[in-house]
Amino acid sequence: MLRVLIADDEPLARRALRRLLAPHEDVEIVGEAESVAQAMELVGSLRPALILLDIEFNGADGFDLLAAMADPPRVIFVTAYAEYAVDAFAVEAIDYLLKPVAQPRLDAALDRARRLLAPPPEAPATLELRAPGRLLRCAPGDILAIEAEGDFSRVHVADQPPLMILRNIGHFETVLPCPPFLRAGRSILVNCARVRSLDMRSRDEVKLTLVGKAEPITLGRAAAGRLKQALAT
């Protein structure tokens, strides 16, 4: 079962989330909180795997809750405020939903939560990467980074030209081991063991250099922040 805590100070919002969660038979709502203090207490006693978390409520915000916990559960933000999206992904939020939330949007967020919270599969010794007219077999550690390109993924392999694979980035996220692979943003998966340097070119542009690849990859501010945080731990 996916144990979920709802944290929102609006009773109508909590009721709406209960209704949206009802079709998911594998979801157990273990509690509801209407303040950061109450959410903190319930996380400690109930140990949910996932929080559906508002950002602004009762004089505090959801980021205060996450900052106060050494090992917080995974979180899906559910909020009326669009301006916190970058900050949300910097704290490794699974998703960021704007109220009012449509059923398909919550369903997609829960699907991603299930994938991320599932026990990690054993990494294969060799991966087969099939591109048009090309087949490459490599060890997972030889993959440097993967960039999302719609339904395709641009796979960067050490000392090889990039391959365009008809697999989305979520597929590789479930196959490759974490660590060392990190989903630094919606469109980038990075092998942290292969990071050579992060070069800040501007406030919103960072160049990522990887061992085994001559040309750097451009990262946005949020992805660079998550990667820096992971490399520092």
UniProtKB/TrEMBL annotation:
One family name in Pfam for this protein:
LytTR
Instruction: Give the residue spans that cross the bilayer.
Output: none
Q: Which domain of life is it from?
A: Bacteria
Q: Which residues carry this modification: 4-aspartylphosphate?
A: D54
Look up keyword Phosphoprotein and say if it applies.
Answer: yes
Q: Which InterPro entries match?
A: CheY-like_superfamily (IPR011006), LytTR_DNA-bd_dom (IPR007492), Sig_transdc_resp-reg_receiver (IPR001789), WalR-like (IPR039420)
Q: Residue limits of the Response regulatory domain?
A: 3-114
Cross-referenced SMART domains: LytTR, REC
Would the keyword ATP-binding turn up in this protein's UniProt record? no
Ordered alphabetically, the record's keywords are:
DNA-binding, Phosphoprotein
Q: Enumerate the PANTHER family for this protein.
A: REGULATOR OF RPOS (PTHR48111), RESPONSE REGULATOR RECEIVER (PTHR48111:SF69)
Name this protein carries in UniProt: Two-component system LytT family response regulator
Supply the source organism for this entry.
Ancylobacter vacuolatus
